[in-house]
Amino acid sequence: MLAMPVDLDTLSPEERRARLRKREAQLQSRKEYEQELSDDLHVERYQQFWTRTKK
User: Fold this and answer.
1) Which ranges form a coiled coil (predicted)?
2) Tens digits of pLDDT across the chain (55 residues)
3) Is residue 44 situated within a structural domain?
């Protein structure tokens, strides 16, 4: 089923604030997830792949 976007101008102020809070909560969770990612690359483990060998 196709859901059409809601016209925010037709909503009551309470409904508008509720939708805004819900959207902000979704955006906050995405930002927190991005900050959890860390760089755990161990260079020594992959160094063999970029050292040149003599032919």
Assistant:
1) none
2) 777 778 888 889 999 999 999 988 887 776 666 666 667 778 888 888 887 766 6
3) no
Asked if 11 and 19 count as a contact pair (C-beta separation under 8 A), the reply is yes
In the chain, the number of structural domains is: 1
Would 17 be classed as within a structural domain? yes
Residues 6+ positions from 16 with CB-CB distance below 8 Å: 8
Q: pLDDT value at position 6? A: 81
Q: Are 7 and 16 in contact (CB under 8 A)?
A: no
Domain residues for the domain of 32 are 12-36
Rounded Cα gap, residues 13 and 21, in angstroms: 12
Token couple for 27: 């955006």
